[in-house]
Automatic annotation (TrEMBL):
Residues 124-172, 173-255 form the Myb-like domain. The lineage of its organism: Eukaryota, Metazoa, Chordata, Craniata, Vertebrata. It comes from the Eukaryota. Gene3D superfamilies: Homeodomain-like. PANTHER family: TRANSCRIPTION TERMINATION FACTOR 1. This is TTF1 factor. Residues 124-161 form the HTH myb-type domain. GO terms for cellular component: nucleolus. It comes from Pelecanoides urinatrix. InterPro entries: Homeodomain-like_sf, Myb_dom, SANT/Myb, TTF1-like. GO terms for biological process: termination of RNA polymerase I transcription.
């Protein structure tokens, strides 16, 4: 079908389709339109958001059946073909011959692209590989010296995810202090945050205020700007003795103390109630991935706190309560907390 017809037909199933790029619409017209129409005949609506356990099982079944049909060794070879250059041509031929797109999406009323990303996330052995060894850290330094910030290339050489190698390099690239923060370090951090916020505010004000107004103006900003989208690598460089994640965590602690006037919001019965509220709200959101969660909306489950504080508490909750959490999907973690941990917390409260 032509592009305009494709947009019109897809709009019935995907209301926001006109915001999608033309190339993506063409792919969706080929991969999804016929499937969507078949699901409609069966009275099944197209879904978005969190994948259900049933859908996850269907993806596993589809992948396993495709491997049996084609004789491809593993799900990793099937879904991360570029990691196996010597087999790439053969695998791509088998995928084309046996209609990989159709087989992977069989029985799942969602856009093919979302099913493919979900499958890659489920079957990527590089997602959770534990702590870096001393040898791996040395390799990472060596590869960075050769390839700079080409994290995609380095991640392939290290068999780790892009984000993992980038974040680990940030930790090991300089002499870092891991002990308690000194008064001097804390002041450096506060000055660094103030500098970047002032700089950002001045850029925003260029078009709205005259130079004399800008020079005499006190810094007054929306509270959200104190913790949203701050340039942490720049702040890390200004502090000098801490890596960016430590800076972010310390700044969150400072802000939380200011915003709550030093109250202990996560202790005793208040802490139990906060954990219960957090688990319930996360379960109700039905998010498939942590990136889909609107953490700002969850702040009031604990109190008047920054989003990073809520994220940190959720991280501690899953690490301490969910066995083998590294091997579970985000939705599986939430389901476990809701089904297993929540009753225990409610009884304790």
């Amino acid at each position: 079908v032509d592009l305009d017809t494709a947009k019109k037909e897809l709009e019935e199933f995907i209301p926001h389709v006109r915001n999608i790029s033309d190339s993506s619409i063409r792919k969706m017209a080929g991969r999804d339109l016929v499937r969507f129409k078949q699901f409609k005949k069966q009275g099944i609506a197209v879904k978005f958001g969190r994948f259900s356990q049933k859908e996850n099982n269907q993806i596993r079944k589809n992948v396993e059946e495709f491997l049996l049909i084609t004789g491809i060794d593993s799900a990793e070879k099937l879904l991360f073909t570029s990691r196996y250059p010597e087999d790439k041509e053969t695998i791509n031929r088998l995928k084309a011959e046996h209609l990989f797109c159709e087989k992977l999406s069989e029985g799942i009323p969602r856009p093919w692209r979302l099913i493919y990303y979900r499958a890659r996330k489920m079957f990527d052995p590089n997602n959770y590989k534990g702590r870096y060894t001393k040898e791996e850290k040395e390799k990472l330094k060596k590869y960075h010296a050769l390839h700079g910030n080409d994290w995609k290339k380095i991640s392939e050489m290290m068999s780790r995810s892009n984000l993992s190698v980038a974040m680990k390099y940030s930790e090991i690239k300089s002499a870092i202090n891991y002990g308690p923060w000194s008064k001097e370090e804390t002041q450096k951090l506060m000055r660094a945050v103030e500098e970047v916020i002032r700089k950002r505010t001045e850029v925003e004000d260029v078009n709205s205020l005259s130079s004399s107004e800008r020079s005499h103006r006190d810094l007054s900003i929306d509270r959200e700007k104190l913790y949203q989208k701050l340039p942490w690598t720049e702040i890390e460089a200004k502090v000098g003795t801490r890596y960016w994640r430590q800076c972010k965590q310390k700044w969150t602690t400072i802000l939380t103390n200011k915003m709550t006037k030093g109250q202990q919001l996560y202790r005793g019965t208040k802490g139990l109630q906060a954990k219960i509220n957090l688990i319930k709200r996360l379960y109700e959101m039905k998010a498939e991935d942590a990136n889909e969660v609107k953490w700002e909306e969850l702040s009031n489950t604990i109190g008047d706190v920054p989003r990073a504080y809520v994220q940190a508490k959720f991280y501690k909750l899953k690490v301490s309560c969910v066995p083998f959490w590294q091997k579970k999907t985000f939705s599986e973690i939430i389901d476990y907390l809701f089904e297993e941990k929540l009753p225990e917390l409610e009884e304790k409260l």
